[in-house]
Amino acid sequence: MKAISVTEPVVETRSVTGSIICRTSASIMVPFILLWGLYVLIHGALGPGGGFQAGVILAAGFILHTAAFGLKETKKILPVKLVMVMASTGPLIYVGMGILAIIFGGNFLEYGALPLGHSPAEASKYGIEIVEVGIGLTVMAIMVSIFYDIALRKKVE
């Protein structure tokens, strides 16, 4: 019977293509992709978009960065520990907003009870935006975490 040995994670230290064209294109496109993700996040309550869509767009920007510059460079910008903190911050924001609504006399996630604006409608608008930011952070972090797990897979012989 052959023994299975698990080696150290296989980590690609250079870019996937090594192409100057790919790196240059990505260095131009990644900031715009991240900016677009923030736009979708902020304007999600007013039109198409929101936390989930923005999180996926933001994660795609970091995945493109990895494809162009390599995993080692991307992990300098977005280390695994930061990804895990971001993944857990989203649910904390969600639950925190719900508990704050209860503290201020409303029901769980009744944003109109929060003292965020001049009227309950304005408070609701701000409360929804805050929760959408939490959702966006969590989705982005989970998508990047899944990508890191795939990229850092352990080789089984």
UniProtKB/TrEMBL annotation:
GO cellular component: plasma membrane
Pfam families registered for this protein in UniProt: MnhB
UniProt cross-references to InterPro entries, sorted A to Z: CPA3_antiporter_subunitB (IPR050622), MnhB (IPR007182)
Keyword check for Transmembrane helix: yes
Keywords for the protein's UniProt record, in alphabetical order: Cell membrane, Membrane, Transmembrane, Transmembrane helix
Span of domain Na+/H+ antiporter MnhB subunit-related protein: 21-144
Compartments reported by the entry: Cell membrane
Residue stretches spanning the membrane: 28-46, 52-71, 83-106, 126-148
Superkingdom classification of source: Archaea
Membrane disposition: Multi-pass membrane protein
Keyword NAD: no
PANTHER family, sorted: NA(+)/H(+) ANTIPORTER SUBUNIT B (PTHR33932), NA(+)_H(+) ANTIPORTER SUBUNIT B (PTHR33932:SF4)
Protein name: Multisubunit Na+/H+ antiporter, MnhB subunit
Organism (species): Candidatus Methanoperedens nitratireducens
